[in-house]
Amino acid sequence: MKHMNSEVKEERTSNKKRIDLFLVPIVLIAAFLNLFKIWTDEYANAYYTAAVKSMLQSFHNFFYASFDPGGYVTIDKPPVVFWIQTISAKIFGFHGWSVILPQALAGIGSVLLLYVLIKRTFGVWAGRFAALAMALTPIVPAVSRTNNIDSMLVFTLLLATWMLFRAVRTVKFGWVLAAFAMIGVAFNMKMLQAYMVLPAFYVFYVVATKITWKKKIAFLTTATALMLAVSVSWAVVVDSTSADKRPYMGSSQTNSVLELAFGYNGINRLTGNTSVTGSSHKQPAQTEQQTASSETKQNSNSSADSSQSSNQRKSSFSQKMQAPGGGNQNGMFNTGNPGPFRLFQKGLSDQISWLLPFVIFSIVGLFAGVKFKGPYTAKQKESLFWLAWLLPVAVFFSIAGFFHQYYLIMLAPPIAAFAGAGAVALWSMYKQHNDWKSWLLPGGILTTAALQVYIMSPYVSSIGVAPIAGVGALGVILALVLAIRKQRKNSLTNYLGAAAMVVLLAMPAYWAMTPIIYGGNSMLPSAGPDSSSGMGGPPSKATNSKQSGFNGMQPPGSSSGNSSSNNQMQPPSGSSNSGQMQMPGGSSNNSQMPNSFSSKSSSSKRKSGGMNAEVNQKLLNYLTKNNTGEKYLFATTDSTSAAPYIIKTGKPVMAMGGFSGSDPILTVSKLKAMIKKGEVKYFYLSGMGKGGQSDVITWIKENSKEIPSSKWQSTSSSAQQGPSGNGTLYEITLK
Predict the structure, then answer these.
(1) What is the per-residue pLDDT for 136?
(2) Distance from first CA to last CA of the chain, Å, rounded?
(3) Res 580: pLDDT
(4) How far apart are CA 557 and CA 709, in angstroms?
(5) Longest Cα pair distance anywhere in the chain, in angstroms?
(6) Low-confidence ranges of the chain (pLDDT < 70)
(7) CB 358 within 8 A of CB 364
(8) According to DSSP H, which parts of 241-355 are helical?
(9) How many degrees, rounded to 5, is the angle at CA 60 between CA 54 and CA 61?
(10) Element (DSSP H or E) covering residue 442
(11) Which helix (H) or strand (E) holds 117?
């Protein structure tokens, strides 16, 4: 009782302080990891940055999150995060850093929110440890340093969590409504991914709220209805608007937001279904990011049959794909192979799993002695909330058919929460008990150090043996010494415990810094010595020390080099690789990759928005000079070639097939009408069309005049301009 009273007094005293001096360096660390050098990323993720450029130009584009200024097609996500990015760009000017800034601030905000959430119940030191663990979780700053959605999504869900906890403490229905409405807002950031926390919200409210069952059911039912209403509000408005009054809903096959939410951005993520139905035949579904979702394109020298079946392409791709480091044992995009230990596999473990063994021991300690029928303490109730967040999300990532490494940021809050709360709880058990619970602390330290050695071992060529051996040796020594000194209560033991936590956080801290040290990838963010590759796996032996990731790519805009495709892998849309890969808008050869995929860019500004992150100035000059009032500067098959020109000029560029070229947006009759109205006359094509586009591409080639490449194509192999490779520029005029 005295101990509990002292804790309450300590908490009240600490709450009176305006600033926790221990929190200041933690926030500064988070600020450094999330903000430092974001100004070097000129384009960020060009697909999303182009949308912000378009949204700045009109409310129509702003509301629908149009990819292009012409309002032809939207991006593949709901608009809320991009509304925030557009407002940021309006205030600070349109730059790569201004569209990244909201996510970077959200990453810092998540650290602060977690501190507040954990401190109140588990104590100030638990809050500090949790905040530090969140800041140093590698995937958190890796994602927050980009204009991808997930950092803002996590911040919003943590804000909803704060509202829920307040609802339970105050027993006020208004806070319940606010919490679930905030999840609805999060749905309009990344759709069904926001609902992954719902089990935690329902379980916690039922267990923790001291009201009758009748009120619990009524309150939760009403709050859920409000959440659903907020979730679908934008979708209902868009889907009920006539298709000719708005852009096509990008990455959907039926021009519907709801289909996008529950298909492409929903169930398909779990099932891994990569087939969507085009107008003519099945095509691999596009993925979320430009690089990883590059559609299959053939260069002008290729004679491959354009009607090759998707199954044949999948088979060919699966045989040829190799994850960084060699082999395909790491699964698609280095997300491992489904199974109960997937989060401990290469490619995922170094992004999120550094503290998982310690978390498991913490969960055991926090729930030790809990009876199913209760009563439950406040600590046990909130531990149940974080467990109900952790387990379903971990299960999803263990079995899901398709996701990217940076989605793992969804696991960061519960892992950090248990790391902070568990560190204090296990230390208390270590000091106060003589039974099995006193062994949880040294056991957690030992097993966590062992896992970290395992995580680092594939990177020995990059980081050396010393840090791996150091973590392993210190982890074993500190765990053994703590076990031996278990009955001794003195300052040395305290220092040993603190030293153990420092050791366990040392390598996650280094990993969290790698996007700054080596350069990051704004399209497929990940942490690690090869973070600029965006693949998050161990570096390939064949990769030069100054080059990582997509080895053997041709810089966009280069028309030199061997264009033969005989030995090149051509992955289907929704696929990526680390070897030679045909890229959107061009062919590949053995040239060095673009700066944005280099570990150490020589440029002060990284054009990491995509393979074609810079424009072909000669092409731009030609198109501008010969534009006779057409709405669109030119049309191309997908967003990869279009995005840099939208960013550079702010002029409409038509991505005929949407994000990766497989959206059934355009028909021959519709295109004819657009040409006759003088909306478009130039077409840049670099291969065969996909899905609903194939007929359109064929018609363009049969009814156009080819523009000699000498008039528009750059011959510089280092210009990094695009559209690139052996594509062709066509002109069509109809009367």
Answers:
(1) 98
(2) 90
(3) 34
(4) 12
(5) 93
(6) 1-17, 272-331, 487-490, 532-613, 687-692, 716-726
(7) no
(8) 257-259, 268-271, 310-320, 349-352
(9) 20
(10) helix 440-456
(11) helix 96-122
